[in-house]
Structures are given as C-alpha cells and as structure tokens.
C-alpha cells in the first residue's frame, strides 16, 4: 500500500498503487493525481503539465518512494516561491513504490487557494 499525508490539512490517504485510477491531472500516480483521486485541493493552474509552479509541495518524508526529478521539473521549480531542498512539483512527482509519503503544501500555495476561491 502507498500512504500519502498532505499537510497542513493533515489528510492521509491509503491506496493500492497498482489500482489507482488516472484522473488526467499530472503524471499518472503523481502526487497531484493522488490528490485529485481523493478530492484533496491542490492547485494545478497548468493542469499538471510542468508549466507553472502552483502545485509546489515540500516532501517531508518518503522522498525515496518518488521518481527522480528531471531537468524540466528542476527548471520550473527554480521559479517557485519559497523553494526548499525538498521541493517538488506535485504533478511531476510520481510514486514509484509503496511506503509512506508526507508532503507539505507551502504557504504561498495555500494563500493562492484562499484568495483564488477555487
Ligand atoms: S500543475 Fe503546473 S507544474 Fe504542476
């Protein structure tokens, strides 16, 4: 089983990685795909195509369960507000193996959510 916790919502979801339906947002089995599958609000202004930074998350735990960052994601992340060493784009971060992943949605994105009203 894969287990993902989204902070600060403190919402944890558990699922069979092989059985996760693809919801057409971000890469299949990406953190964004997981969020959409479980109705967790995570901004994704570009629809998950690595063309914005609104899906920026900070990986607190379980980075080893995720794919390696590619150059496109790295370049895009360089433009993100509040960039950290553990930052990823949720739409590009694919869960490749079972385990526990914890991610934090940074302030900037949270503000964007409340101000954007969607
Ligand atoms: S949703 Fe735009 S880069 Fe992830």
Q: How does this model look, in words?
A:
The chain has one domain: Ubiquitin-like (UB roll), CATH 3.10.20. Helix content is 20%, strand content 22%. Strands 2-1-5-3-4 form a five-stranded mixed beta sheet. A hairpin with a 3-residue loop joins strand 1 and strand 2. The longest helix is centred in the C-terminal third of the chain and has 10 residues. It is globular, with a radius of gyration of 13 Å. The protein starts with a strand and ends with a helix. The structure holds FE2/S2 (inorganic) cluster (FES). The site of FE2/S2 (inorganic) cluster has 12 residues, from loops.
What are its keywords?
118 residues; alpha+beta; Ubiquitin-like (UB roll); five-stranded mixed sheet; disordered C terminus
Percent helix range: 10-25%
Strand content: 15-25%
Structural class: alpha+beta
How many beta-strand segments?
5
Number of helices: 3
How do the SSEs run, as a string of H and E? EEHEHEEH
Ligand roster: FE2/S2 (inorganic) cluster
Identify low-pLDDT runs: 114-118
Q: What integer is the average pLDDT?
A: 92
CATH topology: Ubiquitin-like (UB roll)
Report how far the terminal alpha carbons are from each other.
31 Å
CATH class: Alpha Beta
Structural domain tally: 1
Q: What is the gyration radius calculated from CA atoms?
A: 13 Å
Largest sheet: 5 strands, mixed
Short description:
With 118 residues, the chain is α+β, with helices and mostly antiparallel strands. It has a single domain, classed as Roll (Ubiquitin-like (UB roll)).
Could you give the topology of this structure?
Blueprint: E1 2-7, E2 11-15, H1 31-37, E3 56-61, H2 71-77, E4 87-89, E5 99-104, H3 107-116
Parallel strand pairs: 1-5
Antiparallel strand pairs: 1-2, 3-4, 3-5
The structure holds FE2/S2 (inorganic) cluster (FES).
């Amino acid at each position: 089983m894969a287990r993902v916790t989204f902070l600060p919502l403190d919402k944890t979801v558990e699922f069979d990685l092989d059985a996760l339906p693809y919801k057409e947002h971000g890469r299949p089995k990406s953190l964004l795909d997981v969020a959409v599958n479980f109705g967790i609000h995570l901004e994704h202004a570009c629809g998950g195509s690595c063309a914005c930074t609104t899906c920026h998350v900070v990986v607190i735990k379980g980075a080893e369960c995720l794919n390696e960052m590619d150059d496109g994601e790295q370049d895009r992340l360089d433009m993100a507000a509040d960039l950290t060493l553990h930052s990823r784009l949720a739409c590009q971060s694919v869960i490749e193996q079972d385990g526990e992943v914890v991610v934090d949605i940074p302030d900037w994105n949270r503000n964007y959510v409340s101000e954007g009203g969607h």
